[in-house]
Amino acid sequence: MSLSNPVFIPGPTNLPDSIRRAIDLPTVDHRSPAFAASLPQLFDGLKQIVGTTTGKIFIFPGTGTGGWEATISNTLSRGDRVLACRHGVFSDKWIRMCQNFGLIVDVIDCDWRGPADPTQIEAILRADTGRQIKAVLATHNETATGVRSDLASIREAIDHAGSDALFFVDGVSSIASMDFQMDEWGIDAAVTGSQKGLMLPAGLSIVALSQKAREAGQNAGLPRFFFDCEIMGAMTDAGGFPYTPPMQLLAGLSHSLELLLNEGLDQVFSRHFKMAEGVRQATAAWGMDLCCQDLQFASDTVTTIMVPDGFDGDRLVAHAYDRYSMSFGVGLGQLAGQAFRIGHLGALSEAQALSGLAVIEMAMLDLGYPITGGSGVAAAQEWYRSAFSGHSVDASAADDSACEDVA
Fold first, then answer.
1. Is residue 138 within 8 Å of 169, Cβ to Cβ?
2. Beta 302-306 vs 289-290: how paired, if at all?
3. Is the previous residue joined to 12 through a cis bond, with omega within 30 degrees of 0?
4. pLDDT one-digit tens code per residue, 349-374
């Protein structure tokens, strides 16, 4: 394999050089006054990323899965009912975690080629006249399918039903890449991880809880120790952690937030749309279908592409890696063998995106796919040439906080 090639998996994402330098630190005293003084700015930056002024941020060593566990263990009790749509591998995993914790999960099975269904959510909540459903779980961006759910519509469904259920959101592959408004959309828990839009290695679980969720935690009965938000919040407010924190990752997180906020979140979201649309244009030129059937719900961080009948998406991904040393995502769950995924989140330029499209085109031609060589790359080139100006994280500038116009 070649470590010089970018990866096109939907996380972990490519690391900007300046972030790699930021995490290249000697041992740092996590009980020093300097570390304590750095925490307020770190948490303020994360609040901006998730779109909250009133929510409280918690950072745990872990990944997005740890964030799911922290959310439910700090707010619910064994035997509580929750409502969740299952429309991909990751929404299913959160459901199974809840079941393992002894929660009763009302599952809405949705088409994997579409988003969570606010209409069904509202109908079930209206029928819950005893208000037994304590929380509604939603996956904002289903990483397996490349489908984004409409969180504002789900919030409206909860409100129209007259439910007081908490609203929990998996934003692992959307936060810091696509618009996310915790306060505006009435979200009570938002979960992400360091290895996606924050452009870091895996290792940090980030959870934002509303005041309502924190109040629910006062009566929550599920066991927790490592993921205890009350203890973690008290310690970080005092300038420390209840156990040894991953100092190098926190330094990288501070720099990542600086890069994103200096670029401007609206520009970050526009840049991700630009990268994603180029991939969608290429897919159309190949004559292939997206997993996402309604483009208004298409993800701007990962595109899942259905392979033609008689072809194997897993074999395509393996061939691209073996022959050209470039990584793409395989189809997961129901989509295994039927699809492949192109991740385009984090630090990615037009040049890098085109290199990925060129390689997967070559791999498809090698395996006899019914496409015209160069068609997808040409379509993406035309889009990138004509689209609005975008910015990319500058991975090599001497000023590590700089961003560069690459359009």
1. yes
2. antiparallel
3. yes
4. 999 999 999 999 999 999 999 999 99
Residue whose tokens read 């959310």: 71
Burial class (CB within 10 angstroms; exposed 0-12, middle 13-18, buried 19+) of 218: exposed
Q: Which are the contacts of 385, defined by CB distance < 8 A and separation ≥ 6?
A: none
- Paired tokens of 202: 């895996």
Average pLDDT on 271-283 reads: 98
Residue 25 three-state SS: coil
Q: In terms of Cα–Cα distance, which of 366, 391, 372, 55 is closest to 192?
A: 55
CB burial string 171-185: b at 16+ within 10 A, e below:
bbbbbbbbbbebeeb
Q: How far is Cα of residue 378 from the mean position of the Cα atoms in its chain?
A: 29
Helices 64-73 + 89-100 axis angle, to 10: 40
Helices 33-50 and 247-263, packing angle to 10 deg: 40
Backbone angles phi, psi at 141, to 5 degrees: -130, 110
Give me the residues paired with residue 143 across strands. none
What is the Cα–Cα distance from 274 to 143, expressed in whole angstroms? 18
Closest CA to 76 of 229, 192, 193: 229
Q: Give the whole-angstrom CA distance, residue 355 versus residue 349.
A: 10
Supply the pTM of this predicted model: 0.94
Task: Using DSSP, state whether 208 is helix, strand or coil.
Answer: strand
pLDDT in tens, 2-32: 678 899 999 999 999 999 999 999 999 999 9
What structural domains does the chain harbor?
Answer: 17-262 (3.40.640.10), 264-405 (3.90.1150.10)
DSSP structural state of residue 219: G
Q: What are phi and psi of 170, to 5 degrees?
A: -85, 105
Contact call for residues 110 and 124 (beta carbons, < 8 A): no
